[in-house]
């Protein structure tokens, strides 16, 4: 597909046209950065959630699930640090009146330096051909070194200023780098201010007696406050994990890029409780495990990279993102954080309750350390969907739009067609559906020529189409057409299951 911007536009319009994602309350012109998942979207989203859940919970004897409430006691957020520190540094452009996250403006500037370095590398690779040694070039080329050093310097100054709450210096940095407003091109900036991202709400009937609450900005705290409940009732021994999926809410200021940054979104998080001192071992372990989970879906190794954080969240002693190559470039998809004992200790302090574990091997009590894996379900959806959507040139000179979703995630697994609407073919197609629907999401279509129906299912991401024709009446065989190769094979109706289950089983995907 053409350039990245075009590609992204196509992703958004395809998601709407094929019933994946609509803007929220569209009849009222929508609500910014809030989206609804439609008939196909809800299936894809559920399948991604299940794929995560099964790999985390079902495949690990020492990880169990939880579904905590969205509303929590307000002290939770005081203890977690979100009331005081869950802020974004904001800056306004005085001419365009547009508001930006100061750190995002600086990060975008740094990313441009990276792109310049990459351009030099690509140019040299072209010039030297096969003899090109990228590692050596990156280590010795003055321009590349210059860009990379500048990038590191900019990011490290920003990180240290933010850490010290020196917002004056963040503004100074923006001015020194001559960063201009992307809308007006003006460099006329206000001071940088902190803005808390939590959505507030109220519990109670009357204004006087109402309690101020927050919609949770992360699911993790539901896990921390239940740590001891789960450990005791599940007789869990350290190391063990608690996994949870669910909605989180953030009053994002710069909410753009479709479902990449939403105000209401879903997280899939796992907190892994470990002995103090062993956290770095598990941090490295989960970094690798999580990357392997992503790679298992076959979206391409080159589309992932790790990014170690310079600016650590208030609770972490190490943190890395798994970044994905979205249509608008590499951006955070998942975070792996070593959260120390910050959260459990803070909840102990604010609640007055001990949240400790008696380690029978060490014969001592301690507050466990935590390694967290946290992925946005909507971002994962965007990663899968945007990579899967392809404009494919065909051998006969025509082209097709195909959504090459990993088949384990596809909303509809099998579409069943009668070649024509009579001669008993629809009845056989429906009987096949009756049989397959117990295990798979199946879809019946009898409208239009069969070629058109294939194309519709290609664009919808359906991995298999089964066609019933007149030969079926004679020998009980059907045609199975494979979405990616477009190959067709003739199989007995009783064989359909064994053909499709090869690529629709969890084992096929997770076990390699
Ligand atoms: N419990 C840790 C935590 O919440 P985070 O890096 O703030 O860490 C984790 O968020 C993940 O949640 C991110 O990697 C991203 O995938 C997703 N996420 C965060 N904010 C989001 C937003 N506004 N819209 C969509 N996904 C978001």
Helices and strands, with pairings:
Elements lengths: L3 H14 L3 E3 L11 E3 L1 H20 L4 E3 L9 H5 L2 H4 L1 E6 L6 E3 H27 L5 H7 L1 H22 L3 H10 L16 E4 L3 E4 L7 E4 L5 H6 L1 H7 L6 E10 L14 E11 L4 H18 L7 E5 L9 E9 L2 E12 L1 H10 L5 E3 L4 E3 L2 E8 H12 E5 L5 E5 L10 E5 L6 H12 L5 E3 L5 H11 L3 E5 L1 H6 L1 E6 L5 E5 L3 H9 L1 H5 L2
Parallel strand pairs: 3-9, 19-20, 19-21
Antiparallel strand pairs: 1-2, 4-5, 4-6, 7-8, 9-10, 10-16, 11-12, 12-13, 13-16, 14-15, 17-18, 21-22, 22-23
Helix pairs in contact: 2-13, 5-7, 5-8, 7-8
TL;DR of this structure?
The chain is an alpha+beta fold and about 500 residues long.
Features of the shown structure:
512 residues, alpha+beta, BirA Bifunctional Protein, domain 2, Rossmann fold, seven-stranded mixed β-sheet, five-stranded mixed β-sheet, 23 strands, 24% strand, binds glycyl-adenosine-5'-phosphate
CATH class of the largest domain: Alpha Beta
Helix content: 40-55%
CATH fold naming of the largest domain: BirA Bifunctional Protein, domain 2
Instruction: Please mark out the parts with pLDDT under 50 across 5 or more consecutive residues, or reply none.
Output: none
- Outline type: globular
Let me know the CATH homologous superfamily of the largest domain: Bira Bifunctional Protein, Domain 2
Strand content: 15-25%
Biggest β-sheet description:
7 strands, mixed
CATH architecture assignment of the largest domain: 2-Layer Sandwich
Class derived from helix and strand content: alpha+beta
Order of strands side by side in the largest beta sheet? 3-9-10-16-13-12-11
Number of domains: 3
